[in-house]
Amino acid sequence: MAYKAPAGKGYADVAAHFRTLIQNGELAPGDSLPSVAEIREQFGVAAKTVSRALAVLKSEGLVASRGAQGTVVEKSPMVITGADRLTRMEQNGKRYAPGETSSGHRVMRRSVYDPEICTALDLEPGDEAVIRIRVFRQDDKPTTVGISVYPPHTTSVVPELSDDVRMVKQFGELYTERTGREVVTGQRTGYARQASQDELDALEVDAPPHAAVPVIVTTVTFHDEDRPLGYWEDVYAPGTRVPMGK
Length: 246
Known about the structure:
Layout: H1 11-23, H2 36-43, H3 47-59, E1 63-65, E2 71-73, H4 83-92, E3 100-111, H5 115-121, E4 128-138, E5 141-150, H6 152-155, H7 171-179, E6 184-185, E7 189-194, H8 197-202, E8 214-223, E9 228-236
Antiparallel strand pairs: 1-2, 3-4, 4-5, 5-9, 6-8, 7-8, 8-9
C-alpha cells in the first residue's frame, strides 16, 4: 500500500511523506489522501499533528480541501526534472509524473566551448561531446529544457547516448553494468541568468526581441571514481517553482 510509512513521526515527517508520494507521481492530481483518522493511526500522531502537516502541504500548493472528497492532490506547481528524476525512477520506476511528457528530443555531436561545461567534464575547448536536448512539458505546457553533455570516454562505454532515440535505461545504470564502477551524482547547483533566444523558443515564451528574460538554471555533474562522466543542465520556464534538495 502506497501510504505505509514509519509510525511515531512529527508533522514535518508526515508532510514529507505525502510530499514525496506526490512528487514521485504515486499520488496523482485528483487523488485523495487518507482521512485524518487513517493518518493518525498510520503515524501514531495526534489530530493536531495531522492538521499541521496538511496545512504545510496546502501552503505549498500540493493539496487542497474538497469537502466530501477530503484532502485531494492538486496539479503540482513544482517541476521535477534532472537529478530528481533519477531519484524518482529509482524509487518507483516512473520516468514521468502524471500529466508530464517530453518533446523536441535531439541528439548531436558538437565541439564544446562553454567554459563551465569544459571545466565540469575535463574537456579542452573545442573537444567533441555528445549533447542530448529535450523539452519537458506538464499538461502540454513547456516547463523545462533539459540538456545533457557526455564526453567521449562515456559514450565509448554507452554508445546508445549517441543515437537519436530515447534511452530505455539511464546512462549511469548502463555504465555501471558495463564497467562495475559506481556513478556518483555531484552537488546540484542553481543560479539565475538571462535566457537565450533558443531557450525562449523551446519554452514557448513570447518576448520582445532583445528582451532580458530571467530563468533559473540547475546543473549537476556525474562522476565515477576517476573522472567526470556527464553534465546535466535544466533551464526552467519563467515562473516555474523548483523543489530544492536539503
